[in-house]
Design goal:
This protein has six helices and six strands, in the order E-H-E-E-E-H-H-E-H-H-E-H. With 127 residues, the chain is of the alpha+beta class.
Length: 127
């Protein structure tokens, strides 16, 4: 199991990103909002909003053959270089199973936690 800690501490943002990820792997466009990943809010006390993370499971998902990165890039507010790389990576992996870790831009990659790292940071308090 892996957690991707989001750069915006908001469950609404988590829902939007999860829905955009669903759009990358959905077999056909849908008018119904779907989510690829569930999200959790860090249970500890924080100065300001609590961090939010997507549970990306084993980190692998299928990229549909017509997928583009445009909406994900807009939501992530990436710089030009990272946006171009993500777009190229999505185009290169269309129609195949990929590891989310390999698609993450460098500025976000450090936010991907293993189960042990997440436990050490208190994401599963009370389990």
């Amino acid at each position: 199991m892996k957690l991707l800690v989001l750069t915006v501490p908001s469950t609404a943002y988590a829902a939007a990103v999860s829905s955009l990820m669903w759009d990358l792997c959905a077999p056909a466009p849908s008018t119904t909002t779907q989510y690829l990943y569930s999200w959790i809010v860090h249970p500890g006390a924080h100065d300001g909003p609590s961090p939010v993370a997507l549970n990306v499971g084993d980190g692998q998902f299928y990229v549909q053959p017509t997928a583009t990165a445009d909406a994900i890039i807009a939501a992530a507010s990436l710089g030009d270089e990272e946006a171009a790389q993500l777009s190229a990576d999505i185009l290169a992996t269309r129609g195949s199973k990929v590891d989310v870790e390999g698609l993450l831009p460098a500025s976000i990659a450090t936010n991907l936690l293993t189960r042990q790292q997440a436990e050490d940071q208190g994401w599963f308090a009370g389990e």
